[in-house]
Amino acid sequence: MGTGKTKRIFLWSGPRNISTALMYAFAQRSDTKVYDEPLYGYYLSHTEAKEYHPGSKEILETMEHDGDKVVKMMLTTTEKPIVFFKNMCHHLLDLDRSFMAQGENVILTREPVEMLSSFGEVIDNPQMHDVGYKSQVDLMHDLISRGIPVTVVDSKTILMDPSRQLESLCHKLGISFSPEMLSWSAGAREEDGIWAPYWYSNVHRSTGFAPYKPKERPFPEKLRSLLDDCQPFYEELMKFSL
């Protein structure tokens, strides 16, 4: 179903993993069109997450609920030579994943001790199905079993050396690296999802990838059990990281 010579990049992130900053980086390229979480409406319409995700009513009113139609859009849009789709991995649910063979696939992850602290500030009492680690491992092994190449990236490595890591990522994706990817203007982008007011305050204040700084706040004890469950999945992902 994929059309023409358009390069399709599917980012399969977890929440709070600098995925929006990475989307902004790709948006700086003159050859690239970015899309923000096109499967979010499908995900909310098929799960109980609509009961506790901020802005879910507006998302459901304005986004496509049919996941197959979203996949068709991702495979047929040809607005620019490169199209970049920022997705949350757990938004896939039970969609047929064979379409991923028609693009480049990137799994973006983050150390659970840091991600869970950040996520817990927006979503109270998150569960494994909210944070995506198991979904990412399942997707990684599924793609490998299908012979579909996949690149795993730890967001921390990008923050520690954005230029080098983005250059390596672009090389893996078969595109040239552009220094313009390293900075952007502060503020919102037209591609932002309508959920941006709840999640994007930090990236809207940024003009590039912020230097990595370890979390200083104590880890929330109420999330300790979830952290223990997520850690093995993260370690499995790291075996395949860029």
Word description of this protein:
The protein is an alpha/beta fold and 242 residues long. The chain has one domain (7-238): Rossmann fold (3-Layer(aba) Sandwich). It has helices at 19-27, 40-45, 56-62, 67-76, 112-119, 128-131, 133-146, 155-160, 162-173, 196-199, 201-205, 224-238, and strands at residues 7-13, 32-36, 82-88, 104-109, 150-154. The protein has a 5-stranded parallel sheet, sandwiched between helices. The longest helix is centred in the last third of the chain and has 15 residues, at 224-238. It is globular.
CATH fold group: Rossmann fold
Mean pLDDT: 96
In the CATH classification, which architecture applies? Answer: 3-Layer(aba) Sandwich
Q: What is the N-to-C succession of helices and strands?
A: EHEHHHEEHHHEHHHHH
Binned strand content? 5-15%
Report strand order across the widest sheet: 2-3-1-4-5
- CATH homologous superfamily heading: P-loop containing nucleotide triphosphate hydrolases
Secondary-structure-based class equals: alpha/beta
Give me the count of strands.
5
Specify the CATH class: Alpha Beta
Q: Summarize the main sheet.
A: 5 strands, parallel
Distance between the termini: 29 Å
Q: How much helix is in the residues?
A: 40-55%
Q: Low-confidence runs (pLDDT<50, min 5 residues)?
A: none
Q: Number of helical runs?
A: 12
**Number of structurally distinct domains:** 1
- Shape, per Cα inertia axes: globular
Rg calc? 17 Å
